[in-house]
Amino acid sequence: MIRLKKGDPRPLYLQIKGDLEGKIAAGSFAPDQPLPNERQLAEELGLSRMTVRRAMVELTNDGLLERIPGRGTFVRPRGVKVIAPGNLLPPAQNAIALVLPQGRIDTRGTLFYYRVIQGMQDACPPGSSISLRHGDDAGPLLTALKADPTVRGMVVLGVIDAGKVRQFVEESGLPTVLYDCAVPDSKTPFDIVTHASEDGGYLATSALLELGHRDIAFFVHASSNDAKSAVVGSIARERQAGFERAFRERGLNVAKCRVQPVIPCSESGYTVARRVLSANKRKRPTAIFCSIDETAIGAIAAAKDLGLKIPQDLSIVGFGDIGQFVTPTLSAVRLEMELSGRTAVKLLGERIENPSLASRKCVLPAEFISRASSGAPYFS
Questions:
Q1: What is the pTM for the complete model shown?
Q2: Are 298 and 269 in contact (CB under 8 A)?
């Protein structure tokens, strides 16, 4: 039985993780004995599955647990070497190369990509593995992929440079699926998995407008916090297009100064939100819509530090739906993250079997979820 302490200042997922670590060290779970699943633990503790999952994922990445598809989660036997993310996994009969742009996506720092990769792992057949590959320089990475006989296909995730994506598609010689990437002009067939980003931006902005907000800042994830030098990728632009469409359909003007580029992390969300909210009260927006949840979480922290009440003084909305760990709970556009990971692996498997398939595109729906961080604006 896991015990949570009311006076413990640590987040709930860290309390769960610490308790399980102690039980594993004490030998409470044998390597051949499955742990209770996420649903069972969540019901036992009265918590969300998301909270429990985060603890289990961190223990798995720390090398203490091992997830075996179709069987459950087990304590990893002592003496088994764990390969850190970014390095090759032990050779398997078949491997999927998951290509991540170095420095832009930290799979240990964002629950969004944890959940996408979890979906991919769920869909991998027995005897297969996922090999994480990082690299800004496509040349050496492609050379390494070609030299690895275990790699049967490739999923490229979150690369916004269309030229680099074209390199991966055309030069690797591997069946390829693009996940939330810039889409290159290529004669080599490939598949695309993405979400209805523009619709999500439209739904969230419409919800704020229907509550009575008219002065809404939009934090769009980009390469820099500086509007003059920031590069905004295609997925972020789609979300911005939905934001602008919601205004336009209602005959309202979007103040261009309210669109703020933000590096996709909580720290940058905090920095930009503090700057925007520190302006004269009459010039402050009544709501902030962030194109990813991480920046929304930073914006919530900045608003609190400035003494603003959420949602009375300021509504905040995110995109991705990983904000259940913050207070107040984050209104957000929900994406089917695990499903998208499973879909990427399914399409890749079909392309491996039949490389001559025409290019396909799978767009998963987005849904707006209203929670405690958004409400009608208060005008004094």
A1: 0.72
A2: yes
